[in-house]
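Morning!

This is the sequence you dropped in the shared folder:
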Amino acid sequence: MERRKHPRFKLSYRLKLKGPDDALWQNRARTDDISKGGLRISADKLFAEGEMLKLKITKSYFSKPIEAEARVMWVRGEESAKFLGAMGLEFTHIRWTDVNRILP
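The structure's back. Tokens below.
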């Protein structure tokens, strides 16, 4: 039984992350899927469940990044040539106009 409130879309966008203790943005991340309520990402740096992150989501090289805040809901380490693992993030702050920009 599906527990999600919103349908997910398999979309891959470039993503920058910043945790509460980070001075710099982490540049090696991408979205795997996204919905109105959150997203699954793959990243080089994993954060703990419950941590709050700042996000910059970029659809293309020519678009202005969409800024949002999200809570880490789950973390999975993965053996991958590109990324350390995956995280599920729940949006805690994002403008609805920006949600409409990133969803099909």
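Headline: The mean pLDDT is 90.

More detail when I'm at my desk.
O.
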